[in-house]
Structures are given as structure tokens and as C-alpha cells.
Design a protein that fits this description.
Distance between the termini: 63 Å
Number of domains: 1
Radius of gyration: 20 Å
CATH architecture: 3-Layer(aba) Sandwich
Structural class: alpha+beta
Strand content: 15-25%
Order of helices and strands: HEHHEEEEEEH
CATH topology: Inhibitor of vertebrate lysozyme, Ivy
């Protein structure tokens, strides 16, 4: 009888803990706490080009994007950079250009992947309005790398990784955020 009471008491305590965990609000500053949504398609998503390749080569961004990734833009060699293939390879295969709103700021979302490794080697780049802020998350296998770049007197935000993760979460809420391996 005693065992049964103890077991029932433990089960009740476990149920209360589980219920409390389900309603605990996200930590302030976490990507789950930042409101983010994919916006309806409009001309702003195409301001730098209609494809990822055109965006990379656009006059407004062609110097900023390598600056965003710094030493990781080119393949790692002689101890330079952390990404063996180089970030440029992660934009070989581009996905659709979309607009996302994160904490009230709009970004052009650019996704890409290494053509033969889309599920594990991919990148999400967010371009702030005017192109003065660039943020990125590059997934190289299980290792995510975060990048932030500011120009024209606009410093990159201190919470860049949180912003990019919120953008990724918004893109994932409407389907696959990245190019598919078969497309």
C-alpha cells in the first residue's frame, strides 16, 4: 500500500513538472522569443537579383558577402579559416529568395547549399534593408558557424545568431528552408 501511494505521488509530481515545462516562456533574447515570420513575396526580395548567383554578383553586395564570411569565404588552407570547403561553396546551389520579418525588421533571406551535400552543408544569409547589415548561419555538418557584417556606419547586431535562428525558424514553419537535394 505504501509503495502504491509513493508511486502515485511521484507520478503526480512528474505530471505537474511536465505541465509546468510546457508553459514556461522562452528565455528573453532566445530565437524562440523573437517574433519572426515569412512575408508575402514582393519586389524587395529581388532587389539584388532573382537568383542566389545574381545576389552574390550584385554590385551592392559582391564585396560585402566575402567580407561577411571573412577568412571562411575561401577554402581553408594553411590554418586559415574554419570551413574546409569555404563559404562560397555553400552557395553553389541556391534556393528561392524570400522576405522574412524578425523583431520588426525585414530581411531578404538567401539560402544555398553545397550541391552534393544539401542536407548537411547549407547556409542561410539574411540581408538587411539597404544591404548595410548581413547575417548568416553556415551549417558544416553538425557544426553551425555564425557571421555578422555591418557597413555604411551600421554595426552588426550583438545578437546576430539569435536573429538568424529566428529567421530559420520562420522559414521552416512554411516548409523546407533550404534547397532540396533533388531540385
Amino acid at each position: 500500500m505504501r509503495r502504491r501511494l509513493l508511486l502515485n505521488g511521484c507520478l503526480c509530481a512528474l505530471a505537474v513538472l511536465c505541465a509546468a515545462a510546457c508553459i514556461t516562456p522562452p528565455a528573453p533574447g532566445s530565437s524562440a522569443a523573437l517574433p519572426a515570420q515569412v512575408l508575402p513575396a514582393d519586389a524587395r526580395a529581388l532587389v539584388y537579383g532573382r537568383t542566389v548567383s545574381e545576389v552574390i554578383q550584385s554590385p551592392e553586395l559582391r564585396d560585402k558577402i566575402p567580407g561577411l564570411f571573412g577568412a571562411d569565404w575561401m577554402p581553408a588552407s594553411q590554418g586559415r579559416g574554419q570551413v574546409p570547403l569555404g563559404a562560397a561553396a555553400f552557395l553553389e546551389k541556391g534556393g528561392p529568395l524570400r522576405m522574412v520579418s524578425i523583431a520588426g525588421k525585414d530581411y531578404t533571406a538567401v539560402t544555398g547549399c553545397v550541391a552534393n551535400a544539401c542536407p548537411t552543408r547549407r547556409v542561410l544569409m539574411l540581408i538587411g534593408e539597404g544591404g548595410s547589415q548581413l547575417l548568416a548561419r553556415l551549417d558544416d555538418g553538425a557544426v553551425p558557424h555564425y557571421y555578422a557584417y555591418g557597413s555604411a556606419g551600421v554595426a552588426p547586431p550583438a545578437n546576430a545568431s539569435t536573429i538568424v535562428d529566428a529567421g530559420l525558424r520562420a522559414l521552416q514553419s512554411v516548409g523546407d528552408a533550404y534547397p532540396s537535394a533533388g531540385s
